[in-house]
Description:
Elements: E1 11-16, H1 23-36, E2 40-45, H2 59-70, E3 76-78, H3 91-102, E4 108-113, H4 114-118, H5 129-132, E5 134-138, H6 156-162, E6 181-184, H7 193-201, H8 212-220
Parallel strand pairs: 1-2, 1-4, 2-3, 4-5, 5-6
Helix pairs in contact: 2-8
The protein binds adenosine-5'-triphosphate.
The site of adenosine-5'-triphosphate has 18 residues, from helix 1, strand 4, helix 4 and helix 7.
GO molecular function, one term: ATP binding
Domain Cytidyltransferase-like: 13-180
Family: Belongs to the NadD family.
Amino acid sequence: MSPSKPDAGALGVLGGTFDPIHFGHLRLAEEAREALGLAQVVLIPAGQPPHRDVPQSPAADRLAMVQLASAGNPGLAVDDGEVFASSKSFTVLTLERLRALHGAQRPLVLILGADAFNGLPGWHRWQELFALAHIAVANRPGFAPHGRRWPGTLSPELDAACAGRIDTDPAVLHRSPAGRVVPFDMTPLAISASLIRDLIRGGQSARYLLPDSVLDYIGLHHLYRRT
Length: 227
Ligand code: ATP
């Protein structure tokens, strides 16, 4: 990615293992871009994710699938910085890199599903994330908090970190470079990468849960056939 112009607008940041990328991720990115007025959403596949088991498919394949899935949508970009890094994929390091690239003033908006947001206190240097970016949180079926039922449903430490930061008006994301937490509603899609892996491993169809181009790639490269 190249450095942005001063008036480039708010940039959405959606990290994930993307093992594989699916319509839940893509709608999250697309709906966040529209609902929050973001100039673009950059998808960042993790190389070695620190918060979960080792991904089942290699980083190069997960990157290729993200590139296929986002092809043709100028509202989406792909950042391969974590895939080719030698260190673990810590979001705080990625945001420091993006902040250096895009300058101190450009609003950065870290987009998280509710499950990822709830797990924030387990992340490396998580309290520093608020100084680097805004955080936008989408509902995800099966995970609380759901959209606008805040505050009061978070863990005490997350609740404390979010005190005074939560705002339901996306306009706040454009008034400062970082520091606000904005819940937003997206079309609820109970799709997960683990569901897709399970279906493929079981010889069942995963069609219509993810782009055909990604499903074709999975078939061609024999991904997720074995545990
Ligand atoms: P897995 O099933 O392997 O745990 P996943 O489907 O949760 O994977 P991740 O790559 O771990 O996908 O998720 C990346 C980001 O996308 C996280 O912030 C997560 O909350 C969000 N996300 C994934 N699927 C959905 C969905 N269906 N709806 C809303 N957010 C989602």
